[in-house]
Design goal:
The chain is mainly alpha-helical. It contains 6 helices and 4 strands. It is elongated. The termini are close together.
Length: 235
């Protein structure tokens, strides 16, 4: 039996599926580590041997350990990981767009693709739409991914310092996307946790999964629009 396969399409989607699997593996690992840390804290508190009059020390220790646990597993580690994941996903997007531009050139009498320096998404989009004539794609999720990545890389996630501040605020206003901007809450009073920085981009698992699916859908559409060459193999 002979079947036709587009290896360019297969390798492109496999790269995206690979980073998606990486995301799920690390995200689940963080949840396991969170539960294990909770159990460790509880065991430590239960094991404290104190005189009756010092019983309140257990509650003080529990409160301190609880704040440290919350800081680590509810804020720092998740946001560090989500930041790094978005940067990785963008690298894959940029690399695969470059390969798709080369594929478009090889299939037609087209000029060489761009070598972007400032705006890779914008330049690759212009090449694919204006030069290769592919106008059926929705680039919104890709552009938004670039803006979020740039905020992470260039301003360490500080929205107010980002050149895309307005768009980031618009995305955060759509709460269903899983994007928010940290705001100091007045009800903490003098006990404001040190890790609650104001104006920081916060990414939830929901956004990471959503944008990964959007990226995969985008490249499926791009591969179909390019009509990539196929190789016939014996099955």
């Amino acid at each position: 039996m002979r079947i036709k396969l587009s290896f360019a399409r297969i390798f492109t989607l496999a790269a995206i599926d690979g980073v998606a699997e990486y995301y799920d593996t690390v995200e689940s690992g963080l949840q396991i580590a969170k539960v294990e840390d909770q159990e460790r804290i509880l065991a430590k508190i239960r094991g404290m041997k104190l005189e009756r009059e010092d019983e309140t020390a257990k509650w003080d220790e529990w409160d301190l350990a609880g704040q440290e646990h919350q800081m680590t597993f509810d804020m720092l580690l998740p946001n560090y990981f989500h930041y790094s994941y978005i940067v990785l996903l963008f690298l894959v997007v940029e690399d695969k767009l470059r390969e798709m531009c080369k594929a478009a050139q090889s299939m037609g009498d087209l000029p060489a693709p761009p070598t972007p320096k400032q705006d890779p998404i914008g330049e690759y989009k212009e090449y694919l739409t204006k030069t290769a004539g592919i106008v059926s794609l929705n680039w919104e999720a890709i552009h938004d991914l670039a803006k979020i990545r740039n905020c992470i890389v260039h301003t360490s996630g500080k929205v107010g310092a980002s050149r895309d501040k307005k768009r980031l605020q618009e995305l955060a206003a759509k709460r269903e996307l899983g994007i928010s901007i940290s705001v100091k809450h007045a009800d903490f009073g003098e006990h404001l946790p040190l890790y609650l920085e104001d104006d920081r981009l916060v990414l939830e698992p929901k956004y990471c999964r959503r944008v990964t699916m959007a990226v995969r859908d985008f490249f499926e559409g791009l591969c179909a629009a390019l009509v990539l060459p196929e190789t016939t193999i014996e099955a």
